[in-house]
Amino acid sequence: MSHDGARPRRKPGPALLALIAGATLVTSFGVVSYQDRSPADFGTPPVAAPVSTESEPPRVRIHDGRPPATATTDEPVRLTIPALRVNVPVTAVGIDSRTGDFAVPESVDTVGWYRFGPDLSAATGSIVIAGHVDSATEGEGAFFRLGTLRPAAPITLTDPAGHTRTFRVTAREHYRKTAIPLDRYFSRSGPPRLTLITCGGPFNPRTHHYRDNVVVTAVPV
């Protein structure tokens, strides 16, 4: 499966991701100072390792999965990142009723917008979109090169009516999955920003997981 403007498919990668090791909802957040970082400070791009092709369902745990009383519906349906040749559909996702986890899209060519947080036109808070880096069966994911995205790169979200909102990258950060500040990235308050999350760092052939998370923050243009 391919999308207009998307980069060509390579051979399938070796590992299906566990996308994010835990997520949490919060109801308050102070103003964040976003600063550009030099490339040397940025996380390394995700790297695939020659391991088993056995697939593992993605799991993203939710600390508090209750929808907010003021949940909004201006959903993004497409994400475009010209610098990475990414042009992919966005699916609104919530909580998997069977597991209580974040309902991550199965396809690596689709990214998920967390619909229990801020929406496309939000004036405050973090619009969270998560995507796969790769898959044992499908190859490179939409966010395969997210770890190489540079400051000031434009990112555009589009709604069902064709209206767009453009953001520019202000930070790219690299965390151990056990250390990612989820309260910051899943906040519903503070200045409006777009948060993109995927896996990165070294791949563990024993656990079939990437060790880290790559997080890109962008602010409205």
TrEMBL record:
Position of the signal peptide: none
Keyword Hydrolase tagged: yes
Keywords for this protein: Hydrolase
UniProt keyword Hydrolase present: yes
InterPro entries attached to this UniProt entry: Sortase, Sortase_dom-sf, Sortase_F
Region: Disordered, residue numbers: 43-73
Biased composition (Basic and acidic residues): 56-66
GO MF annotation list: hydrolase activity
Domain of life per record: Bacteria
Name the UniProt record assigns to this protein: Sortase family protein
